[in-house]
Amino acid sequence: MYWRILQVESEKVSNWRSQAACRGVNPEVFYPEEFTNGDLQEAAFVYCRKCNVTTECFVSALEEEDLRRGIPGLGGSIVGIRGGKSAKTRWLVHQGRLTVEQALNLPIPVYNIGMKTK
Question: Structural domain tally of the chain?
Answer without folding.
Answer: 1
